[in-house]
Amino acid sequence: PDKIHSCTWALGADPSTSPHAKWEKPVYQEKILPNILTTIGNTPLVRLNKIPKAYGLKCEVVAKIEFLNPGGSIKDRIALRMVEDAERQGILKPGGVIIEATSGNTGVGLAMVAAVKGYKCIMVIQDKISMDKIRTIIAFGAEVVRVPTMVSFDSAEGIMGVSQRLHKLIPNSLLINQFMNPSNPLAHYDTTGQEIVDGCDGKVDMVVMGTGTGGTATGVSRKIKELCPNAKIIGADPLGSVMALPSSLNKIGVPVTVEGIGYVFIPTALDRSLIDEWIKVDDKDSLNMARRLIREEGLACGGSSGVLMAAAMKAAAHLKEGQRCVVLIPDTIRNYLTNFTNDSWMEARGYIESPLTKNLWWSSK
Ligand code: PMP
């Protein structure tokens, strides 16, 4: 068991050498579950209908609904796994303080895990990130430190620098570091990727994912390439991010408004050799696509889902009838009630295509 949880699977190594291939997903058979954390994962796969049809796609497009995790995002999976691996390794003990640099969803997941398990939690977050996520983190009892977005990633004032400084200053603290933590991709290898293969009975022709830390893309791709070797992996990347290859695709200096994916550095948790093709999407197309997913497919999703769906509509255009494209839907609309779901926010940035406020009335005016 020590070996299984030792997190020593080197990034870039052959998946068959992973000690976590033997990791066993807990099965809860009770009708009443012991706590909310046991509901993380096992999210549904749902067919998308109107949007793929409008794009003239022949293949089936299936969404993996990660906003149905209890904290509202795919990052609940890694929050639980990183904390429990740290507990098993003895580097997080009762009374410990969890510190992390996050674009919000890992913060929500960690704050929820910490609330249930009784840890103190301090999350370091860029100031471009919506107040909706920050309020959720604070409601779980965690503290939030907001830092400037527009500083270089290795600056002392950025999320990395500030979280490292807090870790040095606070005794009994653990810096989770999802950008380098092997438990991040391993959570997706063992759960998200396996669930996609199982849910599709092994018939997967394409998977479209975004890259923030790259944990999802690395873990899911390794599992898919092992079990469905002919499937194509698509990386969906915001225009101003530097993650895509060839790097000539990346528009250096263009700010990225979409939250959670697209950075100006390459995290260790991202193994880019697993991505077969990168597709770039700008903020306007991404956020309008997210609004279409909400309105036309009924998915209460966030902005990064729009990046992935827009990329999927391009990448899957050449798939044939009977083939299947899986798109991840990483997080919830609840994170964006003060930004892209708001018409004036969209208007101020020149993004608006189809206003929603026309549906809002006052009975007395
Ligand atoms: N979408 C959203 C909204 C996110 O918060 C994240 C995580 N930062 C992702 C996608 C990408 O996940 P990953 O970190 O596994 O690349």
Structure, described:
The chain is α/β, with parallel strands linked by helices. It has ten helices and ten strands. It has helices spanning 50-54, 75-89, 105-117, 131-139, 159-169, 183-199, 215-227, 283-297, 303-315, 343-348, and strands at residues 45-48, 60-65, 97-102, 120-126, 143-147, 173-175, 206-210, 232-238, 277-281, 324-329. A six-stranded mixed beta sheet has the order 1-2-10-7-8-9, sandwiched between helices. Strands 5-4-3-6 form a four-stranded parallel beta sheet, sandwiched between helices. β7, α7 and β8 (232-238) form a beta-alpha-beta unit. The longest helix has 17 residues, at 183-199. The relative contact order is 0.15. Residues 1-8 have low confidence and may be disordered. Bound molecules: 4'-deoxy-4'-aminopyridoxal-5'-phosphate. 4'-deoxy-4'-aminopyridoxal-5'-phosphate binds next to α7. Its EC number is 4.2.1.22. It is an enzyme of class 4 (lyase). Pathway: Amino-acid biosynthesis; L-cysteine biosynthesis; L-cysteine from L-homocysteine and L-serine: step 1/2. This is Cystathionine beta-synthase. Keywords: Amino-acid biosynthesis, CBS domain, Cysteine biosynthesis, Lyase, Pyridoxal phosphate.
